[in-house]
């Protein structure tokens, strides 16, 4: 075998090892990302529960103010002009 063939075989083997290590590292990174996203989902779902409970009274207050405003507007329409 030539020195060139030996060098190419060694280079191919070295690249194979590096690519295997790189693939394993990418697998670990994706696994860690999955855990982080699961934790983020849990945090967001915990935050969503109290927020939903607070939206109800806020919507009720908004509806009351809207009804008061529409009643005032209706009163202006039916008010006699003098």
From TrEMBL:
The chain crosses the membrane at residues 6-30. Keywords: Membrane, Transmembrane, Transmembrane helix. This is Uncharacterized protein. The lineage of its organism: Bacteria, Candidatus Daviesiibacteriota.
